[in-house]
Amino acid sequence: MRGIGHYCRVRFRTPAVRWILGVTAGIVAVAIAVAATAVAAETSKLTYFTWAGYNDPAFRKPYTDKYGAGPRYTFYSGTDEGFTRLAAGFQADVAHPCIHDVKKWKDAGLLQPIDTSKITAWNDLLPGLRDSDAIRMDGKQWLVPWEWGFSSLMYRADKVRPTEQTFALLIDPKYRGRTAFPDVFDELFQVAAVLAGVRTPLSLQESDYPKVEQMFRALRDNARFMWTDPAQLEQAMASGEIDVAWGWPNTVRHLRQQGVPVDYMLRPKEKLVTWLCGLAHLKSSTAPRQEVYDFINALTAPASGKALVEDFGYGAANSEALKIVPKADLDALGLGGDANELLAHGNLLGPMPEAQRKRLIDMWETIKAGG
């Protein structure tokens, strides 16, 4: 996602527009319906700051039933851009940051705390997400979990037969030139850190930096390429260009649908890399509080979560949503088991000190460029 920042490919829905031509009564009926929609749309005061693709109507039906065709959408390419724009004075009501963003956004004064008593699905949200220290600080809740997922290693089952479930396949000399990973810093760092034996990746000691640097180089040197689009990865796996790759369950689902024999590590010894994104109430908000919570409640409703799983291939934070998704669809995404157990077997991404993050990004950019 989440990169996490949303680097996943999403599908846009384009509802068909039907023009109704008929007798006078029919024209009058259409005119009334259009007028009613216009009036309803005028009641929507909310601006949602998010990634492109999240304006899917299936995510907000209870909201649009009450307020019309809103909200207004403003898109960013990633949460770093979103932070910069908000810090510069851009105003919106609800934003869509990820778990590693929350502390930075809160400390910058961009967020206001969530009133959990107004979240209809609060008790149905997965505890492993809802109760994370990264989104609950100073005794207050700063993010409503909405979508989550995990990243792990996939491999061609007809060519690779690992003796243990481990991310170390990415640096195994046997697969030199036949691996790939995404150019997504947060996940790449987490993989490098655990492979390097770093005990606290989000709070590095000075002695940890050389270990991470060495592992960055090992990952780079063993890879055929870094992918930037899941379609690029799917094509390379399907053609046999690569045998081992870091990726997401949705890619595995697509490959299996094409008949490509792909396995996915759901119990790696290093644990899954797990991400979370959600809904934040911005301090710059001018929309009525009731409308803000109506919008958040619409997105976290079970039906919206079902659409999120089926259309985007992500996990829904609402446990009730997972119950109404067909089991075959959950199994195809690796979500068919107990979601709480899956989360317990993961390393949830979180914030790191900005100085550490900048130093590591500079390190990786140098290595990526061949340094």
Q: What's the helix and strand layout?
A:
Elements: H1 24-42, E1 47-50, H2 61-67, E2 72-75, H3 79-87, E3 94-95, H4 102-107, E4 111-112, H5 127-130, E5 136-137, E6 140-141, E7 144-156, E8 179-182, H6 185-195, H7 208-222, E9 223-227, H8 230-239, E10 244-247, H9 249-257, E11 262-264, E12 272-282, H10 289-299, H11 302-312, E13 315-316, H12 319-323, H13 327-332, H14 339-344, E14 346-348, H15 354-368
Parallel strand pairs: 1-2, 1-3, 8-9, 8-10, 12-14
Antiparallel strand pairs: 3-12, 4-12, 5-6, 7-10, 7-11, 7-12, 7-13
Helix pairs in contact: 2-10, 6-7, 7-15, 8-9
What's a concise summary of this model?
This protein is of the alpha/beta class and 371 residues long.
Q: Could you describe the 3D structure shown?
A:
- With about 375 residues, the protein is of the alpha/beta class.
- It has 2 domains: about 45-145 and about 275-335, Periplasmic binding protein-like II (D-Maltodextrin-Binding Protein, domain 2); about 150-275 and about 350-370, D-Maltodextrin-Binding Protein, domain 2.
- About 40% of the residues lie in helices and about 15% in strands.
- It has helices at about 25-40, 60-65, 80-85, 100-105, 125-130, 185-195, 210-220, 230-240, 250-255, 290-300, 300-310, 320-325, 325-330, 340-345, 355-370; strands at about 45-50, 70-75, 95, 110, 135, 140, 145-155, 180, 225, 245, 260-265, 270-280, 315, 345-350.
- The strands form 2 sheets. Strands 1, 2, 3, 4, 7, 8, 9, 10, 11, 12, 13 and 14 form a 12-stranded mixed beta sheet that branches.
- Residues about 5-40 have low confidence and may be disordered.
